[in-house]
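Re: the request from the purification team.
They wanted to know what the chain is likely to look like in 3D before they choose a buffer screen. I agreed to run a prediction and write the result into the notebook, where they can find it.
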Amino acid sequence: MIPGEYLLQDGEVELCAGRERIAVEVANTGDRPIQVGSHYHFAEANPALTFERDRTLGYRLDVAAGTAIRFEPGQMREVTLIPFVGRRHIYGFRGAVMGELSSAPPSNAPEAAQGARPPQPGDSDQGEP
């Protein structure tokens, strides 16, 4: 073996084997292209993307890590999503969840994502994550 050499097995690797998958129709109603990355919390994606946001709480794109899907203006396409696993704590993105997924009601995610921002130093209601 040469240092740094990869020894690959024959066959294909199935990403996220055995995970639940959901299909969602998404339309870009904006006037600019929008890209969503592989590990972005899909429920908090750009508001110009229209889809069933409540269904996507706790889900991300079912694509290889580091890749993204691009939605051109006026384009509609179906995407496949898989759930976040592990502790299922979501922080950042558009600030709609900011903690454990089970503590955020699905109906709250879309409204909170509209214009949400992460807590800032000096915010009076800033708590522990």
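For the purification team: DSSP finds one helix and eight strands in the chain.
Please add any questions underneath this entry.
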